Amino acid sequence: MAHHHHPILGLILFFLFTFSSLSTFSHAHFPIVEEEQVPFPNLRLKNAYVALQAWKHSIFSDPYNTTANWIGNDVCSYNGVFCAPALDDPSMDVVAGIDLNHADIAGNLPSELGLLTDMALFHINSNRFCGIVPPCLENFTLMHEFDISNNRFVGGFPSVVLQWPHLKYLDIRFNDFEGPLPKELFEMDLDAIFLNNNRFTSSLPSTLGKSKASVITFANNKLTGCIPRSIGKMKKLNEVIFMGNDLGGCFPEEFGMMENLNVLDLSDNHFVGTLPNLTGLKSAEIIDIASNELSGYVSESICELPSLKNFTYSDNYFTGEAPTCAASSSSSATGIIFNDSGNCLIGKKLQKKTKLCLSILARPVDCDKVCGCGEGPSSSSLPLEIKIKTSPKKKLINSAYRIVEELELELALLTSN
């Protein structure tokens, strides 16, 4: 039968070989097949047979019969199993990858999977696998891409992934993992980290700023506390999603230092105070800060960011916005989509009731006291290049807008009484 050779896996394995040398793996916990005269090309494929057969027997439901051909010694021909030349012996094929995405399989991960020591790619997203991620997977030391998203895994963060020195892509979203996020996660050399839609609790580790990732999603967990100031050090970050948590404190001014950030989503949290200087977000295309408790004035310095395409700041308590930010002035003139509904903007439609606005706005926010977590520079030490470059004339106009809006808000309250 024809073997499934995967060219991408070969490249991944070649890349890993240039940075590491293979050592003899310990399999004390596994029933390793001894070297003998068997109809297998090599011992590693025989061990793979043991692992895959154990996995097949741990499957409760396979509606598409994906594993129906997991029979016999030719493991490289099994559906979803991919072989590639071994790093330490290119003349020998090994199981280097598994891809069972969207197979709707129900089952668990048996300990025998730890026998697959040449594994560099493990994709089983959109299935019904349950239980915990077994510790034996620490033997996946060549792992490059690990995707177990959209399953039913439980337990704490699968700390076994912290043992994989070559991991670049981690996707564990849409499961039921809980507890704290380990600080070591953000010290790994990962490019993509998907943690959303689990049950993670605790605050964000201060090591967040050490991450080299370009994409991180924290959305729809139960994270609390403040965003560490160290996030301003993440120069490679292109996209970060915090939506749907219980994060709070004042809006982190360190975001203004992130020139490569394309997508910033802080919506549906409990951020308070006013917007800081964000003129450093030169690459930002999408900014969503909806459904928080932010107030004050939305300046043109944000709405005129050079790459901006969509700015959503609805369902907050903003009392003023620059003319360039007004939703009615968007689309046709600039092509930028703004959403300012559900705020405290006098004279605009779809805004909060005045009494509700004043119940929040009457309580001033001291950002030095509200959020004392994280480390990093204060506003006085921010780089000069991200300071707002506003002419005296514009400053005067903006001040006038603020004064007028405050007077209008007070007048509206008196009228309503």
UniProtKB/TrEMBL annotation:
Keyword terms: Cell wall, Cell wall biogenesis/degradation, Hydroxylation, Leucine-rich repeat, Repeat, Secreted, Signal
Species, as recorded: Stylosanthes scabra
SUPFAM superfamilies: L domain-like
Main location: secreted
Domain Leucine-rich repeat-containing N-terminal plant-type positions: 51-83
Listed Pfam families: LRR_1 (PF00560), LRRNT_2 (PF08263)
Name recorded for this polypeptide: Cell wall hydroxyproline-rich glycoprotein
PANTHER family linked: LEUCINE-RICH REPEAT EXTENSIN-LIKE PROTEIN 3-RELATED, POLLEN-SPECIFIC LEUCINE-RICH REPEAT EXTENSIN-LIKE PROTEIN 1
Region forming the signal peptide: 1-28
Localization in the cell: Secreted, Cell wall
InterPro entries: Leu-rich_rpt, LRR_dom_sf, LRR_extensin-like_regulator, LRR_N_plant-typ
